[in-house]
Amino acid sequence: MIFDNTDIALKAWTHGLAFRELGINYKGSVIVEPDFASIQLPNVAMTTQIKADTLPPAGIELGINSDIIFDLARSMATAEKLSVKGPAGMQLSGNIVGKLLEGSPEISGSLVVDKLKIQGLLNALGQPPSQLGSLSHAAMASNFSITNKKVKLNNFSLQLDDTNIKGVAFIDSIHKPVVGFDVVVDDLDLNRYLETQQNVKPSANSSNAPAIVSGTSVSKAAATNLKQTTVKPAMLPLAFLYNKHVYGKAVFGRLKVNKVVMRDLLIETTVNDGFVTLAPVTAKLYDGQLLSNIYFDLNKSEPHVKIATQITGLKAGDLFHDLTGEDKFKGLSNLSFEVASSGSDNVSMLKNLSGTMALDIENGEIHGFDLVEQIRTIYAVVGNQKEDGATGKNLGAKATQFSNLTGQATIKNGVVKNEDLVLTSDLLLLNGEGSVDLVAQEVDYIFNADIYTTIKELNQKEADKIKGLIVPIHIKGKFNNIGPPKIEKDDLSVLLGSALNTKIVKDGLKKLGENEDIKKHINRLEEKFGGEIPVKKLLNGLFGL
After folding, report:
1. Which among 528, 518, 530 has a CA at the least distance from the CA of 538?
2. Which terminus of the chain has a lower count of CB atoms within 10 Å, N or C?
């Protein structure tokens, strides 16, 4: 039987479901096979109107075109040449097959969602703007299968603006879902999706009015400063992982966060009953290699995290430039650390950070000051020498070069402490110790510089005279304003103690000790004070006087 020019209109109202009104208008032919073995709806032209509490009052309308066949003998339905047009230019196409196998339905097929404007679609659906920053366009194509136990996307491709994602994904066990994925991402710039909303317009009545704090009128600028000092720490985005079961793998050809770029990033993850594992995490990082294992425990009152990381062959200067925008450092770096912490926001995580780390940097350079020049200047002033006269080298470059920098450190409550930092080069030998406070963002380090190593190329004979002289050099300040190296008053004891063991001082004291007039003065002082005075003890100790 064939029914041509069939025109059917249906409307249904519901309560307690996602939609409250559903309308269907069908125009086309209906072909019914003998014994109702199958029903064919060729060249279907159907419109569907949906109204729901979450949609604008007028609702939305979908236009559907397809060839639909209901094969009743085999409990099967197909929709071929499917085309669905929706609001904001949304267009979907594909083929769908539905089967009812022993009471268990199965739907499979392929779907393509043409490139659509995200914000336009959200507006049409009455939804708030996307929280993913400036996400503009999206498109998708995938094979799929759906049963009452599992949803699977096979060989899907997803385009988000200029980023292409390919792979497979599934949701297993619908009642207690387990999510799995294996995806490849070509190039993702996270910055465009992590933008904060900073363009908030002030209210008209507050633009010029002073703020009132505890009954006191303060200026708008002061109120702004007050507001800045009371900003809450950023909460860690981990809540969505509670009671989730996820496992999968993601590979990023290129990933950019702020200005930091990683390539060939591999992340394997497992989420199970509040335990989150990211292991391994590998990537190419500024010509170096990153290997990391990260573990979260979300079952505690505050999330706990453990991180073990190794970075080898890193061009630290390039990374430092992208992190800070400044060229203050360079060197080929190897870094390893094992840390643990707990907290619900980034500040508490830093405050509770503890662990160990090791550092080894080769062929490095610290910009902004030249320790060699400073040490030679001290030598020139003390020795009444013409600075740099022996070599004629240009020491004006504001940089400290070194061949190797090594050290190990412990971390406790967000403070990194180190006692064995060693910096070496042909002209430098420094031993350092100090701390880096990650919470206060402060550096406090003291380097003990071997003067002999620094000036021996200027004048070997003069250098021999002060061999063993150690000059303490202090470096301290905030991360963004580290002061120039200098000698602090508290560090002078190191300088004076080492000076007493140099040849030039010993020779000078020996001459003093051999002077008869000086001996007489010392003896008179001894008689006056009734005992051996400290100066004589020093001379006796050094020269046996």
Report:
1. 518
2. N
Rounded to an integer, what distance in angstroms lies between the CA atom of residue 436 and that of residue 246? 37
For the chain, 545 residues long, give each residue's pLDDT as a single digit of tens: 676 667 777 777 766 556 677 788 888 888 888 877 888 889 888 899 888 888 888 888 999 999 999 988 888 999 999 999 999 999 999 999 998 866 788 999 999 999 999 888 888 888 887 666 678 899 999 999 998 889 999 999 999 999 999 999 999 877 778 999 999 999 999 888 776 444 434 444 444 444 433 333 444 444 444 444 444 556 666 666 777 789 999 999 999 998 999 999 999 999 998 899 999 999 999 999 999 999 999 888 888 999 999 999 999 999 988 888 888 888 999 999 999 999 988 889 999 999 999 999 999 998 877 878 877 776 676 555 554 444 434 444 588 889 999 999 999 999 999 999 999 988 888 899 999 999 999 999 988 888 777 777 767 777 677 777 777 888 888 887 777 777 776 666 666 666 666 666 666 656 655 666 656 665 665 565 555 444 444 444 444 44
Question: Within 10 A of 222 (CB to CB), how many other CB atoms are there?
Answer: 13
Among residues 120, 40, 42, 38, the alpha carbon closest in space to that of 86 is found at 120
The total number of residues written for the chain in this structure: 545
Q: Are 87 and 55 in contact (CB under 8 A)?
A: no
CA-to-CA distance for 365 and 327, rounded, in angstroms?
A: 10
In 1-148, at which residue ranges do the beta strands (DSSP E only) sit?
Answer: 2-13, 21-32, 38-51, 60-71, 76-85, 91-101, 104-117, 137-147
Strand partners, 288: 285
Residue bearing tokens 């041509």: 4
**Domain boundaries in the chain?**
1-85, 353-498, 507-543
- How far are the Cα atoms of 263, 308, 348 from residue 391, in angstroms, in the given order? 46, 48, 53
Tokens of 536: 């004589």
Q: Which one, of 443, 441, 437, 434, lies nearest residue 413 by Cα? A: 437
Q: Are 293 and 281 in contact (CB under 8 A)?
A: yes
**361, 403 Cβ separation under 8 angstroms:** no
Phi, psi of 522 (to 5 degrees): -65, -40
pTM beyond 0.85? no
> What is the Cα–Cα distance from 332 to 335, expressed in whole angstroms?
10
Q: Give the bridge partners for 49, in sequence order.
A: 23, 61
DSSP string of 488-515?
-GGGHHHHHHHHTTSHHHHHHHHHHHH-
